[in-house]
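Support request, please re-run this one:
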Amino acid sequence: MKESKDKYRRGIFIVTYSRTKEGIKYLILKRKLHWKGGEFPKGGLKKGEKVLNALKRELKEETGFAPLRIKKFSYSGKYDYYKIYSDRPGIKGQSFSLFAAEIDFGKIRLDKVEHSDYKWLGFEKAIKKLTWQNQKKCLKIVNDWLKKD
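Re-run finished. Output below.
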């Protein structure tokens, strides 16, 4: 049996975008809780919560918006936290499934506990703002899909 420190929190990555006159813009959030840097909306599933309900909840919490369109991708992964967090006892990292969500372009209502700022950016600038390689890969997957869509 694995020790509890080997547990991964189930989660979702939500590459969030909007269609504008200038083309597709991606929402990049400035993280301040647990680490500092750029990310897109993401989060863990609550016990017994369905994935789509978690996606809608996380988007509402982190942006103030409901999704206009949702796309699930067959890409998933997991990562270790670089330290153990006191608010996540027994959890060493997070697994994720990739989704894209279109929302209305505009002013975001941030979750002030987790994020301090946001930017709407085109692909080239957005990918440079993301902190983690797994999120950069996810953004590329969604961007490639949107170019064909």
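The chain has a mean pLDDT of 88. The longest strand covers residues 7-20.
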